[in-house]
Amino acid sequence: MIKLESVTKKFPGMKVPAVKDLNMEVNKGEVCVLVGPSGCGKTTTMKMINRIHEPTGGKILIDGEDALKMNPIKLRLDIGYVIQEIGLFPHMTIEENVATVPNEKKWPKEQTDKKVDEMMTLVGLDPKIYRKRYPSALSGGQRQRVGVARAMVSDPPIMLMDEPFGAVDPITRARLQNEFLRIQERIEKTIVFVTHDIDEAIKMGDTIAVMREGELIQHATPSDLLSAPADDFVADLVGRNRSIKRLHLIRIREILDDVNRVKPAPEDMPLDEVKKRIEDSDIRSVIVVDRDNKLKGIIGVSDLKRKTGEVAADYCQEVSDSVTDDATLNDALSVMLEMGEGYVAVVNEDDQYAGTITLGDLLNVVKEDN
Amino acid sequence: MLQNLYKLIIVPLFLIIVGVVIVIYTVNNPTDGLVARMLTYDNVLTALQQHLMLMLVSMIGAIIVGVLVGIMLSRPSLYYVGRGVENVVNVGQTIPSLAILALFFTWLGLGFRVAVFALFLYSILPILRNTFAGITSVDSSIVESAKGMGLNQFRILTRIELPLAFPIIIAGIRTAIVINVGAATLATFIGGGGFGDLIVTGLSVRRDMVIVTGAGLAALTAIILDYVIGQIELRVVKWT
Which ipTM did the prediction report? Predict the structure, then answer.
């Protein structure tokens, strides 16, 4: 899909090239993450693909076609582009921002309108509320979403993203990453993603390209990168606690089926049965759900002694946090640590209870991997 | 809606009425015969007409040239030339307006056209400087993301850079207007006419009423124009 052949970029007045003789291939529908310390040439490499920077040597092929011979304007119209500072146009409403590329392509108005609505909904911004707002009235996370919606609106087969989730707090970032992966699963774009955060790279990438001083050191799947770093630099970059990093690679729903845990108790379950479930449970407690299968709370052994009542709901303790099933095991671990509990309840997209994960389950995963 | 009407029409109208009242009062209540001869409707109207022509012609010219040259200098290839020109402009701005008029008088002689030309050159400076500063101060990440999405140079200029620089350009135009109105009263010294005629003759025959009428009308013109442009800016810039 995207092929870089001995691509070199030397900025005028610089002695050392920013990118040296780089060969790389990104397959269709894959997310390739460029990662490395600042100044390693990762952003320059990305920006050569849509010719914001013109390479000084080598070839860039997109679907076999030489990108350097194409009309740069046409090339860019078919490549989604999200940059570090998001670059929303402050003088345009969200609607106008998202419609930038369709307007350049002269789409009919109804088609643009429909697509803008669709994209805003996709990234989780209600068009009814946000369409007419200006970027200054949005939070950092919302702006990032608009940036992503704007880049995807014309359905470009390729997207370039330069630290698109850089400017938000860690919690929002994790959420945006998860949402983005969920969207990507559906749309399967070819994405070149730049970050300096190796954790983000491991989480987002189908492949990871590690760069240093303008050279590509290793291009491999996250799993291979963790198990077989090419040299000390890569090993240093992925860090010593590789087992923990591996938790970034696995989504909760992938292990949820293998976890054998007692069924949740409906809120009107009689006390005797609740007791029995708790005895059967390996975590000495049972999750309580309401009629819509939504998470209501948890009953532990101590709750049975402390409270009185007839049915499950009377003993139920609220849980302070839960995770969604598309979060990674690492997310699950951090929620457990934050709550100070050895378990965390998992809910699905519709907020329904999907299962429970314990520290033991995480240990098993790590053990199997080693 | 009512507030819009108030701001757009009633306030300028009120200022115009103030001017008309001043004129009617002074023409009908001259302090002596000399004043009566100087302050006739004819004289005041001629002065007003000349003054407006001086201002409008020089301002329109200055806006067109200032904005265009400012845009040109802000292009990346001319950026350093632009910085140089900006410095020259800043120095040029420190020359007193009277000196500018005098300089042009020695070069081009007397008359309305020379006055217009001098005013025009003098008013270009703030407009050009602000246009250049406004465009070059647009956040480079915004321009880059526009470029990356496939907007060409011209579209980036018209859709991104100019709208974002608009408030700063307008500020330059407002500065130019205020300077221009003041300087236009000096045009009388090189035979350019305008309210300066009233002020200078008033001064030479020591009739305060004539001086105040001329000065007051010149000031009112400046206030009205500045107000109208400010309103236009408010209506166009909705995003801050």
Answer: 0.76
